[in-house]
Amino acid sequence: MEELILTIVKPLVDYPEDVKILVNEDEGRITYQLSVHKEDMGKVIGKQGRVAKSIRTVVYAAAGSTQQKKVFLEIID
């Protein structure tokens, strides 16, 4: 799942080397925390959050067919 997120996000940003993903796995849920360069934050979120929503839609759809746990994607500073 991390590779999917990186494949989607890295072409969108100006600083692809600063894209990082932290994974927190609890009982029944997996949270992916996406961190990007401060200047790229707007590109990842998009106008009215449309890009972020689209990224989440793809990730959740891919996870729904392969994961038994609930998957969440957070974009952090």
Automatic annotation (TrEMBL):
Presence of the UniProt keyword RNA-binding in the record: yes
Keywords linked to the UniProt accession: Cell shape, Cell wall biogenesis/degradation, Chaperone, Cytoplasm, RNA-binding
Gene Ontology biological-process annotations: cell wall organization; peptidoglycan biosynthetic process; regulation of cell shape
UniProt entry tagged with the keyword tRNA processing: no
SUPFAM superfamilies in the record: Prokaryotic type KH domain (KH-domain type II) (SSF54814)
Pfam families in the cross-refs: KH_KhpA-B (PF13083)
Localization (cell): Cytoplasm
Gene Ontology cellular component annotations, sorted alphabetically: cytoplasm
Any GO MF annotation of the entry: RNA binding
InterPro entries in the record: KH_dom-like_a/b, KH_sf_prok-type, KhpA
Reported function: A probable RNA chaperone. Forms a complex with KhpB which binds to cellular RNA and controls its expression. Plays a role in peptidoglycan (PG) homeostasis and cell length regulation.
The protein's assembly and partners: Forms a complex with KhpB.
Protein family according to the UniProt entry: Belongs to the KhpA RNA-binding protein family.
Record's protein name: RNA-binding protein KhpA
